[in-house]
């Protein structure tokens, strides 16, 4: 894989922060990236949550992601009538995931609320390994 460019929007103080993974070929970018798989769920999209579930389990079965931690952002929590974290957890059958560490975090990407907590979970996971 060539240069990987991952953008994480943090809108604290209305600033955008970017995470960029760059390195020469064979440096280990993909291996580092595969330590985490971040899934973003649109909490307002009840109709397609089953598609997310299918894709999630296909992805977790992939050999390259065997050791990956799973961070799920339940985004758009600012929208009235959105699915709660509990509902999404149930739809995605998260408690059945035994072979990956996982965490679901409510967030609103527009304001940045919840993003920091999700990233803190990722960091704490690295520390205890
Ligand atoms: N209300 C609300 N809208 C959001 C939130 N996050 C993103 N949006 C809106 O949802 C739409 C899609 O957001 P994007 O960040 O472009 O989503 P994406 O996953 O990159 O979309 P693709 O490029 O189509 O894959 C935009 O209109 C955003 O403004 C949120 O937390 N709350």
TrEMBL record:
GTP binds at residues 75-78. Keywords: GTP-binding, Nucleotide-binding. Pfam families: Arf. The keyword Nucleotide-binding applies. InterPro entries: P-loop_NTPase, Small_GTPase_ARF, Small_GTPase_ARF/SAR. It comes from the Eukaryota. Signal peptide: none annotated. GO terms for biological process: protein localization to Golgi membrane. GO terms for molecular function: GTP binding; GTPase activity. This is ARF like GTPase 5A. It comes from Cavia porcellus (Guinea pig).
């Amino acid at each position: 894989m060539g240069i990987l460019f991952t953008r994480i929007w943090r809108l604290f103080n209305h600033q955008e922060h970017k995470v960029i993974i760059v390195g020469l070929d064979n440096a280990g970018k993909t291996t580092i990236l595969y330590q985490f798989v971040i899934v973003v769920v649109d909490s307002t999209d009840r109709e397609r949550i089953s598609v997310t579930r299918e894709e999630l389990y296909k992805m977790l079965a992939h050999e390259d992601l065997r050791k990956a931690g799973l961070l799920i952002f339940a985004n758009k929590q600012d929208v009235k009538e959105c699915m709660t974290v509990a509902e999404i957890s149930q739809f995605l059958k998260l408690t059945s995931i035994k072979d990956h560490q996982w965490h679901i975090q409510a967030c609103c990407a527009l304001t940045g609320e919840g993003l920091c907590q999700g990233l803190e979970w990722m960091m704490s996971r690295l520390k205890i390994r």
